[in-house]
Amino acid sequence: MAMTGTGPGRNARTAVVTGGAGGMGRVIAGKLASDGFDVAVVYVGDSAPATATVGEIQAHGRSGAAYEADVADENAVSQLFDAVEDMFGHIDAVVNTAGINRPSALTDLNLADLDAILRVNVRGTFVVSQQAARRVRPGGSIVNISSSMVRAAAPELSAYAASKAAVDTLTRILAKELRGRDITVNAVAPGPTATAALLASTSPDEQKDLAALPPLERLGRPDDIAGVVSFLVGPGGRWVNGQVVYANGGFV
User: Fold this and answer.
1) Who is most buried in 24, 35, 157, 214, counting CB within 10 A?
2) Is the pTM value of this prediction over 0.85?
3) Are 76 and 70 in contact (CB under 8 A)?
C-alpha cells in the first residue's frame, strides 16, 4: 500500500474516494477538497495520477493521501481503512467510484470479462461499503457510483448494467441497515459523461450522438457528477437517503 500526502487537519472532515485517480473520481476528490474535506485517494496500478490528484487536493488547502488497494480484496480494504483512520483520525464520507466496463453483446461476451466486471463493480462496492458501514462516524455519508445504463438498458452493456443494478440494490438495503446510525447511503447514476475513458473509446460522431440524447443536448461533465456527490455528502443532502439519483441531463 503506497501513500503520499501531507499532514491532516484532525478537526476536518475526511473523505475516502475509491477510483480517485480516474477522470470522474479525480474531479470528485477535488470537489470534496474544495468543500473542506481532507481526502484519501484510493487507486490501483500507476501511482502518478493519484499523486496528481493529491496535489489538486492540497491546492485547495486540504490534506490528501494516496493509497494503493484492490477494492475487491477485503484484507487490502480493511488495511486501507486502518491506514486512513491512523492518518486522519476518522472517516466522514466514502465515495465508491472504482469501476470497469468491457462492452460486448451478451452472446459474445467473454465470461472472464463478466467475472472481472462483477469482481470490481459488485464485490468491490460491497467490500468498500462493508468497511465504510463499520467506520463512518455519525453524520457521515456513503455514496456509490451507479449508472443510468441500468434504466437505459443499452445494447452491449448487459454485464455493466447488471453490475450497477446490483449496486443500486445494495445501496438501498444498506441505507435501511444503518438505521439509527445517522449515516446516509445513496447512489449517483451518471449518464454518458465526457471522461477521458469515454472520449478515448468513442469516435467524434459517437460522441455527437451521445450528446444528442439528453434534452440538455450535451455530454455530462465530471464536475456535474461531482456536484451531486458534494450535495449528498454535505449538509443540504442529509434528508436524502437510500436513493439512486439519476444525473444524466434527462435522457432516461
Assistant:
1) 24
2) yes
3) yes
β-bridge partners, 14: 38
Instruction: Write out the H or E segment, with its range, that includes residue 221.
Output: none
Which of 171, 165, 167 shows the shortest CA–CA distance to 151?
Answer: 165
C-alpha cell recorded at residue 104: 460486448
Q: In which element (H, E) is residue 18 found?
A: strand 13-18
DSSP string, 134-155: HHPPTT-EEEEE--THHHH--T
Backbone angles phi, psi at 15, to 5 degrees: -120, 145
In this structure, what C-alpha cell is assigned to residue 169? 440494490
Q: Which three cell numbers stand for residue 156?
A: 452491449
For domain 13-193+223-246, give the CATH number.
Answer: 3.40.50.720
pLDDT confidence tier of residue 56, bands split at 50, 70 and 90: very high
The CA distance from 15 to 84, in Å, is 9
Residue-wise pLDDT for 28-52, tens only, equals 999 999 999 999 999 999 999 999 9
Place of cell 445494495: 170
d(CA 85, CA 199): 36
Q: What is the DSSP letter of 235?
A: G
pLDDT at residue 7 is higher than 70: no
- Chain centroid, CA 244 distance in Å: 13
Q: What are phi and psi of 133, to 5 degrees?
A: -65, -30
